[in-house]
């Protein structure tokens, strides 16, 4: 046990002597957590929205008001022709174009159906997919309300039977994207740092020439492995603790449940990651 203690002391001294390594271990992951948590999101707001209203009726205006009321869309202007709208999209002035056909309201009342034209700037495919979903959700909501109003039979309003779903969002009731992203980024950073440190471990001993000296000492393989991995295990658990504190203080991430159980699973997980890094370092 005393031998393992000496190896652990040696490892900690080597870590804190390396001035270039300390910012990578302690500062860079926390800065990345703060920055990436604000940057890495699939939420898209201020979508530049334009429309071509060929109908100019109360129904078409009601549909456009749905987009104006949305927090995701920035309704810019009404183009008189498809050519003008497409030209604006080519110039990057517009992200989404909604085209309402002529006789939109009349055909809805008469045929009980109609079609809308939707053009989405898909230079960024992921963004275009999210924008298309936003538009579809608004149109579906408008369509549901409109169907109820237009469904008439023999001058009597027939109220259709509607099934309403009331979702309950577990673990992230407000659908705050940071509540999802921050824990994921934290786990990724802890994994990368511990894997990086353990992966450099034996290689560094080989480069500075101390590995041969260790081989001639009466140190068992098990003592060597434990002494090599334990300091980085402590660093990994420390990074997790600092990350959780930042997540709570800066991002107000709700932390519920058993912290002891989470730390127990994390301790095993970090051991696995360190083992992989040690294997890579030894193989190299």
Percent of residues in helical segments? 55-70%
For the report, how would you describe the main beta sheet? 4 strands, mixed
According to DSSP, the number of beta strands is 6
Give the amount of beta strand, in percent. 5-15%
Overall mean confidence score, pLDDT: 82
Q: How many helix segments?
A: 10
Rounded to the nearest angstrom, the radius of gyration is 30 Å
- Order of helix and strand elements from N to C terminus: HHEHEHEHEHEEHHHH
Q: Give the neighbour order of strands across the main sheet.
A: 2-1-3-4
Shape: elongated
- The structural class is alpha/beta
Tell me the number of structural domains: 2
How far is the first residue's CA from the last residue's CA?
Answer: 28 Å
Ranges where pLDDT stays below 50 over 5 or more residues in a row are none
Provide an overview of this structure:
- It is a single chain.
- This protein is α/β, with parallel strands linked by helices.
- The chain has ten helices and six strands; from the N terminus they run ααβαβαβαβαββαααα.
- It folds into two domains: 2-39 and 176-283, no CATH class; 47-157, abc type-2 transporter like fold (3-Layer(aba) Sandwich), CATH 3.40.1710.10.
- The strands form two sheets. The protein has a four-stranded mixed sheet, with helices on both faces. A two-stranded antiparallel ribbon has the order 5-6.
- A hairpin with a 2-residue loop joins strand 5 and strand 6.
- Helix 1 (2-17) crosses helix 9 (221-249), helix 2 packs antiparallel against helix 7 and helix 7 packs parallel to helix 10 (259-283).
- The model has no long low-confidence stretch (mean pLDDT 82).
């Amino acid at each position: 046990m005393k031998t393992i203690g000496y190896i652990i002391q040696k490892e900690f001294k080597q870590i804190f002597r390396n001035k270039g390594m300390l910012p990578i271990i302690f500062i860079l992951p926390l800065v990345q957590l703060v920055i990436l948590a604000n940057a890495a999101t699939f939420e898209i707001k201020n979508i530049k929205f334009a429309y071509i209203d060929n109908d100019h009726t109360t129904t078409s205006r009601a549909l456009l008001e749905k987009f104006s009321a949305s927090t995701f869309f920035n309704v810019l202007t009404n183009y008189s022709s498809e050519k003008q709208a497409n030209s604006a999209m080519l110039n990057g002035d517009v992200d989404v174009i909604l085209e309402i056909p002529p006789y939109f309201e009349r055909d809805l009342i008469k045929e009980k159906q109609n079609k809308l034209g939707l053009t989405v700037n898909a230079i960024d495919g992921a963004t275009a997919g999210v924008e298309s979903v936003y538009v579809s959700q608004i149109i579906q909501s408008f369509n549901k309300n409109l169907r109820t109003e237009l469904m008439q039979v023999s001058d009597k309003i027939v109220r259709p039977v509607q099934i309403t779903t009331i979702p309950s969002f577990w673990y992230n009731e407000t659908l705050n994207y940071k509540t999802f992203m921050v824990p994921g980024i934290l786990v990724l950073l802890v994994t990368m740092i511990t894997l990086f440190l353990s992966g450099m471990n034996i290689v560094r001993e080989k480069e500075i020439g101390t590995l041969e000296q260790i081989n001639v000492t009466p140190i068992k393989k098990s003592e060597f492995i434990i002494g090599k991995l334990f300091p980085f295990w402590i660093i990994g658990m420390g990074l997790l603790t600092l990350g959780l504190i930042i997540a709570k203080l800066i991002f107000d991430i709700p932390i519920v449940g058993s912290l002891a159980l989470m730390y127990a699973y994390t301790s095993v997980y970090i051991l696995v990651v360190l083992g992989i890094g040690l294997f890579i370092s030894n193989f190299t």
